[in-house]
Each structure stands twice: as C-alpha cells, then as structure tokens.
Here is the input.
Amino acid sequence: VLAKSVSLDEDEGLDETTSMEAESFLESYEEMLRLQKDELALTLRHLEPLLELLEGKSSLGNAKGGQANAPFTKEFCYRDLKQALKEIEEDESLRFVASDLQWSLVLKLLTENDVSEEERISWAEVVMCYRTCIVGMQALEQTPRPKELRNRVRQRSLQMLSSFKGTGLGNVESGVTKNLERRTTFEWMDALFICGALLLLGAVAF
Here is the structure.
C-alpha cells in the first residue's frame, strides 16, 4: 500500500510538472507569435519609403494601382529595381536609404546580370526576400564556427535568396554556385555582423 501511495504521489508530481512545462511553452509560443507580428509591422513601416521609391520608378501600370490596403499585390519589373538601386547609390538626397545595408544587399542580389529586366516581382516577394536576408544573417551570426557548418549555412542562405531572382526557379543552383565562387556578397555580410556588434556594444557602453 505504501509503495502504491508513493507511486501515485510521483505520478501526480510528474503530471503537475508536465502541466507547468506545457503552460510555460504555450505562453512563450503566444509571446513569440505576438513579437513576430510586431516585427513584421515594423519591417513594413520601415520599408514604406522604399516601396514609394519603387512605385516612382515603376514601368508597370498596375504598380500604383490596386487597393490601397493591399500593397503586397503591386508588381515591378527587375528593371525598376535596377533603377532604384542606381538612384540610391548616386542621389545624395537618398544616401540615408543606403544606410540600410540589408536593403542594398537585397537589391544587388535581385539585379545581378543573369536576371531578365522584363521579369516581374511583387512587393510581397521583395519583402520576403528582405526578411530571408535577415534570417540568413542572423544564422551566420550564430554559427561563427566550425568553418564547414558556417559554409553550409551560407550556401543555404544563398540558395534561398537566389530563388527570388526571376521566375525561372530551375536556374537557382547555377546562381548559387556562381555566388559561392565569388563569395564577396557574404563576405560583406560577415562584415555587417562585426559592425553591428560594435555599434551595439557602443550603445550599451553609453
């Protein structure tokens, strides 16, 4: 009887612990979802001036049309992206936009020479590419070593980003190989982590 009582007590303790863990997990899950929603809203707000810049360069009639509450449906030619990138780099009044190195990196990746200027990309895909770039940079930041793992993370990031280069997804592999051979793009990305860390440390120090 005593053994049975102890066993029941242990089972009850285990159930209570499991219940607490489940509750904690669900609370953290809800908090994560809320923060992800907030992060998306902040990202879209931050990118509004860039959307307006693209709209001004658009060669498609429907880029400025459509519903005001549905900017994701707006489409642009890759030629529009090239023109926007050129203006950001050359126009002194737009130098503040160039301070967003992630945006500059995305535009450079999307406007490489192997992409047809007449192909289209929606604002939804541009935002998705931007956020994918951020996720790739964060993953690289979390994997400083070993070298083999870091290279694999870099390759997967490049593969995901390359999928936004035109509608011909069958050419993704060749684009990834080309980027991996050069590796200049993600060497720049590595440098961004160092700069960001230094800025963060400086802010903390103050």
Summary: Residues 71 and 117 are 21 Å apart (CA to CA). Residues 2-57 form the longest helix (56 residues).
